[in-house]
Amino acid sequence: MRLNRFLAAAGIGSRRHCDELIAAGQVTINGKTCTDFSTQPGGRDHVKVNGKLIHLAPPLTIMLHKPAGFVSTRKDPRVRDTVFDLLPAKFSRLFNIGRLDAQTEGLLLLTNDGDLAQSLTHPRYKIEKEYEVTLDRPWDPELASKLQRGIFVGGERATIARLHSVSPVRLRVVLRQGINRQIRRMFEAVGYRVKDLIRIRIASLRLGDLPRGHWRPLTKRELKSLEARVPQ
Question: Which of 61, 141, 156, 177 is deepest in the core (most CB within 10 A)?
């Protein structure tokens, strides 16, 4: 197993992040700095990141129903509640796959599998994410085509893959992008305010009836379904 995959499997982060650590000289093997990406640590090798010994952990991926008011990070400079405050201490090595802004609720995945994280967040795989959107006033269906063609948000073209109405003020929206606060900003651009936003699906994985603030591990069947969505 190449060094970056070893670090990712140990829960250090995505392979891209692990590559950055290796390139920066922050990884040692048996006391010597290693910047060779092709190195394959053996079972008796001592691998450290910034002086901390790294052990391979059993793979674990969980889903969390993130409530509003929690940020998707481990530490927040503004001392807000984080999603890790909702999890037991034994999950300290997990990291979140993508983010939800503080006021958005719904499905958030956390894992120690760096390969899975990279696969689900890399733009080229166009993993679908579905949201339920509640607007401040009745939706004008004539605007749907404008959002699907795309709107420039912060210098980047943002598009909605699919959109349909559930009620006059509630919509289901599917994205294949991951621009910061994309849904809120796109609806603001056409004159609407998003009152409530909840992510209900990532790829084949649905939030279902998991209560707010609760979590559960993914089943083997769910993991296989997620892994099948991207090339190996």
Answer: 61
